[in-house]
Amino acid sequence: MNPDILQVVDELFRRRLQVSELDPDVPLVDYGLDSIRSIDCVVEMESVFDVNISDEQAASMRTLREVVDQITASLAVRAGQGGGAA
Predict the structure, then answer these.
(1) For the residues 26-35, what does the mean pLDDT come to?
(2) Rg of the chain's alpha carbons, rounded to an integer?
(3) Computed from CA positions of residues 51, 55, 56, 57, in that sequence, does the dihedral angle turn out positive or negative?
(4) Residue 42 DSSP code
(5) Fewest CB atoms less than 10 Å from the CB: which of 5, 9, 28, 32?
(6) Cβ of 42: how many Cβ atoms within 10 Å?
(7) Is the dihedral of CA 48, 50, 51, 54 positive or negative?
(8) Is the CA virtual torsion 54, 56, 58, 60 positive or negative?
(9) Are 58 and 45 in contact (CB under 8 A)?
């Protein structure tokens, strides 16, 4: 799990959910995440990290660890699609 991404995502969810601490392996719904907050968080993460997260990907992200893993994977895909030399 990327510690830099974890720090940003953890802060975002703690702020949105108004909690002081999150366990990376506890389902976010246990902290009060609902569908509206989930959408807000996905939109903010897409903006912060400049990635696209599909509805299916968003639905599969149940824990902070899964969110960080998805962002990491999305960043890797974006990096692979960069305009670098072949």
Answers:
(1) 95
(2) 13
(3) positive
(4) H
(5) 32
(6) 19
(7) positive
(8) negative
(9) no
CA atoms within 13 A on the CB side of 70: 21
**Mean of pLDDT values over 46-58:** 94
DSSP label at 63?
B
Please state, in angstroms and rounded to a whole number, the distance separating the CA atoms of residues 25 and 7: 15
Q: Are 61 and 82 in contact (CB under 8 A)?
A: no
Query: d(Cα 77, Cα 72) in Å, to the nearest integer?
Result: 9
Residue 25 in this model has a pLDDT that exceeds 80: yes
Confidence of residue 2 (pLDDT cuts 50, 70, 90): confident
- Across the strands, what pairs with 63? 27
